[in-house]
Amino acid sequence: MAGVSRSTVSRVLNDEGHVRAEVRERVQDVISRTGYTPNVAARSLVSNRTGVIGLVIPSRVHNLFEDPYFARLIQGVTAAANESHATLSLFLFQTEDEERELFPRVVQSGFVDGVIITATRMGDPVLARIAASELPVVMVGRPDLDGVSSVDVDNRGGAQLAARHLIEQGYQRIGMIAPPANTTAGVDRAEAFVAELAAHGRALRAELRADGEFSEASGYDAMRQLAGLGDRRPDAVFVGSDSMAAGALRALRELELRVPDDVAVVGFDGLAASEQTNPPLTTIRQPVGTTAARAVHLLDDLIRGTATPPVSEVIPVELVVRASSVRDRPDRPRRTP
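Now predict its structure.
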């Protein structure tokens, strides 16, 4: 119907090879008018590809359905996969036993052409096993393993922005609720924040640091720990994620400490909910949708052989200033250390 050969139609369907723009448009028009759907099984026999990509989330993510970040990531990967005409298969390993049992289905069955893996902890065996296979893999985040392609956000740059903002606002006793130290994102954010304070002559005092997990509950507990210092408490706190910051704000409300007059708060993620906190949360916004899309596109390049691993991409972040950290009067002195 389009007046072209089968091989030309195949190249258009698979987005491979050179096809003149007018020919491609004619083929796509016929496909649209006829409602033609390629036979995936037949195509996989010819191309040795299934058209299926996997999103692997390891068993160590206990707050998967509590943290809005993961919902945004899954949504972004799904949207990008749909745009690439790929089928997405989600692998959630609830326990380590389940992980060991189901893992062969991911890398050995030939069911998927490649995988995106996220939320791994440092030294995670899932990443090591996938990397050791011949399956194309892209990690969302910074891998702690050589040879793995990745798409990450600029966690270090974001933490530096947070530190400079609090310094510029005139805060003196700057503290931190650190994200988990067994994740590369947590390490990068905490190390960069501490280093940026030091670069401005503001060493982070040990008593002004509390450690947490990527959860609201841990942010709540950590802020109560810092607030318990009384007159020695911080007058500003960088919190490792927005979910943690939401818990920190709740703790401050219960303790009747004003934000930012008594304690300023800065988060990290840029989740939609950060606009609705009381007060609205200053945060480092990471473009989760962009990160997800780049991971899908990079995986597609690896599957097609148009990219050679390892490929690493870093997505910029931005500081979003809201009421939780802005002083009404920048010239008003804060408590001295």
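The chain is about 40% helix and 15% strand.
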